[in-house]
Specification:
The protein is of the alpha+beta class. It is built from 21 helices and 13 strands. Strands 3-4-5-2-7 form a 5-stranded mixed β-sheet. Strands 1-6 form a two-stranded antiparallel sheet. It is globular, with a radius of gyration of 23 Å. It binds 2-oxoadipic acid and nickel (II) ion.
Length: 454
């Protein structure tokens, strides 16, 4: 009975596709963004054949058009751990721990994503998933009220729960059950224009933090954005402004460079949407802002050494209390990053990034015994091997906080005195989060082995 199970990669692709279709109907501006990114990517590839060759070599060309990440925020440990089980059916594991309380956002987060080279090539769909930190609500009565409201809701359909259990029991799903699973799990991510709390309760929650109102007031954790990947974010940003889209003032992350590193992101502001609040036998009209649009460019995954340098230089650029605001920020950022090497050979030789090694045609033609005598660097120098950037698959806490803030009105900047609480997060999740560096190191190690094998 198990011979007809489909792969988790297939289920993830179906889910990413269904999510994209749903979000396009919910937020038409998302369709505009996708068209814009498709055009910028086509123009960039036409102008840079070497970039296209690199993407082809690294199995990144095919995945590019479908590549997306989304984000949701949940309220309880049970919701988070059930999500972990649902994502596992799609081959997605929790990677990394992000503490956003330091930036005034009362959540901590992980990213669910594929981890192996083959799975990432098949579909790199990721979901940045945040858990509200109840203990950061000061007002004990409000905290108790929020907890009681969350305790009454189930963000999963009965069908989704049954199919997750079935997949866990049988080790997967058949094609027909995979389609059913995708339709059922999609319900968790759907937007609801009817709140579950009165307008007065919504306002009290909002007063504590707008994010708390967003998490607590609805039937489920609506997907709040879905982000396509562009190959030239500066061109995409210009195009957004040209189309009159209300884009964020600055691009988060590193400055523009010859060799893109980590992640650069821009977004358009959250839409103000009509919401009906229950009011006795009636409804009261109001609004809520949650959903926005985002575009990102991904680059080289950095090693701990490279990441430490990135964090240090970003800190220096932001270190006048203004964060990423102020019209001189792009200049401060570019100046700070003058100290970050910006060519592939230096980045590799100094161990700042992770690389994927492969034999060139000439390398493949050479007898294995000759090849085995040469180090990777010697093979590269002789044109027998290539070393391409391994793409960063994760997120950046400072950028994520900037994205959160720009969609919360940009005013609530006070940091919480809380500490990062990875253990509490993992207890809620019901599993440890994977270490992103270990995953990149493994991809690099596998590619190095291929130089001397076969
Ligand atoms: C998540 C924001 C983080 C990113 O790209 O850094 C994020 C949220 O607003 O829920 O998606
Ligand atoms: Ni995002």
């Amino acid at each position: 009975m198990h011979h007809d199970l489909v792969s988790p990669d297939h289920i993830r692709s179906l889910f990413a596709q269904a999510m994209s279709e749903m979000y396009r109907t919910e937020v038409p501006l998302y369709g505009t963004l996708m068209a814009l990114v498709a055009k910028v990517n086509a123009d960039t590839l036409a102008a840079q054949p070497a970039l296209e060759a690199q993407l082809l070599r690294n199995d990144e060309r095919a995945r590019l058009d479908a590549e997306r990440h989304g984000a949701i925020r949940v309220g309880t440990a049970e919701e988070l751990s059930m999500l972990r089980r649902a994502f596992a059916v799609m081959g997605m594991s929790p990677v990394g721990y992000y503490d956003l309380s330091v930036a005034g956002v009362p959540v901590h987060s992980t990213a669910f994503r594929a981890t192996s080279a083959a799975a990432l090539a098949a579909n790199p769909f990721r979901v940045f998933t945040s858990l509200l930190r109840m203990e950061l609500i000061d007002d004990a009565d409000l905290r108790a009220q929020a907890q009681a409201i969350l305790a009454r809701r189930d963000i999963f359909t009965a069908g989704a729960r049954a199919l997750v259990e079935q997949a866990e029991r049988d080790g997967g799903l058949s094609e027909a059950h995979a389609h059913r699973f995708v339709a059922e799990v999609l319900e968790t991510f759907r937007w609801h224009s009817q709140a579950t709390v009165s307008h007065a309760t919504y306002q009290a929650l909002s007063q504590a933090h707008r994010l708390i109102a967003d998490v607590v007031s609805f039937r489920g954790p609506h997907i709040n954005h879905l982000t396509p990947r562009t190959l030239d974010i500066d061109a995409a940003q210009e195009e957004m402004l040209r189309l009159g889209i209300d884009a964020k003032a600055v691009i988060e992350g590193p400055p523009r460079r010859a060799v893109p590193i980590l992640l650069r992101q821009t977004s358009f502001k959250a839409l103000e949407e009509a919401v009906a609040f229950p009011d006795g036998d009636h409804r009261q009209a109001g609004t809520h802002t949650a959903r926005f649009g985002e575009i990102e460019q991904r680059g080289l995954a950095l090693t701990p050494k490279g990441r430490a340098l990135y964090d240090q230089l970003l800190d220096a650029a932001r270190d006048d209390g203004k964060g990423s605001t102020g019209s001189d920020y792009p200049m401060r950022l570019a100046q700070a990053f003058a100290d970050f090497p910006d060519d592939l050979d230096t980045l590799r030789r100094e161990g700042l990034g992770y690389f994927r090694y492969a034999l060139t045609e000439r390398g493949l033609a050479m007898p294995k015994s000759d090849r085995q005598e040469l180090s990777p660097e010697a093979l590269i120098e002789a044109g027998l091997a290539s070393a391409d950037p391994i793409v960063y698959e994760d997120f950046l806490p400072v950028s994520a906080a900037g994205i959160f803030q720009s969609n919360l009105g940009g005013t609530e900047q006070h940091a919480y005195a809380a500490n990062a609480s990875r253990e509490a997060f993992e207890a809620a999740l019901g599993a440890p989060v994977l270490d992103e560096f270990a995953l990149y190191a493994q991809l690099e190690a596998e590619s190095l082995e291929s130089l001397h094998a076969g």
